[in-house]
Specification:
Tetracycline Repressor, domain 2, mainly alpha, 0% strand, elongated
Amino acid sequence: MEATISNRQLEIIEAAGRILCTAGVGALTTKNLAAEMHFSESALYRHFKNKEEIVISLLEHIAEELDNRYRLNFDPEASPVIQFQTIFVQQFDFFQENPHFAVAVFSEGLMTENHKLNVAIAQIMEVKKRHLSPIIERGRKSGDFRNDLSTEMILHIAMGAVRFQLYKWRVSGFKSKIREEGEILIDSVLKLLTP
């Protein structure tokens, strides 16, 4: 996962997220980022080697934050259904608090031939899969989730539905309350996934 980042590096990646949110991938330049931070471009290079390293750090930070939320808010005694809901509620809460990071995750322009960027994007999905897969497995064994659907298929259904909900929220300009909409969505997904 992510190496420890300094407070200044966190400020820089948050500024990068704000630029992505307000102006898109094309506007994420070191010149614009330095202007957003109110210092020179050369000052950026004291904290990061290049723009790629900034974007990778941003994506790694998102993965780390989500991983921490999932771990810290996990009740091992709860039913698989409650645990499943908790994972998604934590994700919706994170993006409600940090909409500029939602843009980074769902910016198709970040999907490039750059292997390091693609690995960082995939890492965010892997964090969620790592937490969800054992919950779904337990739920399939206990009868809380449908057993005629594989764990992988349940992951695809749930994660795809959530991704689409977050995408709609982003293109609406973050006008709605994603936590409330997300809870309704997850309840609907559970109706499909439970016997």
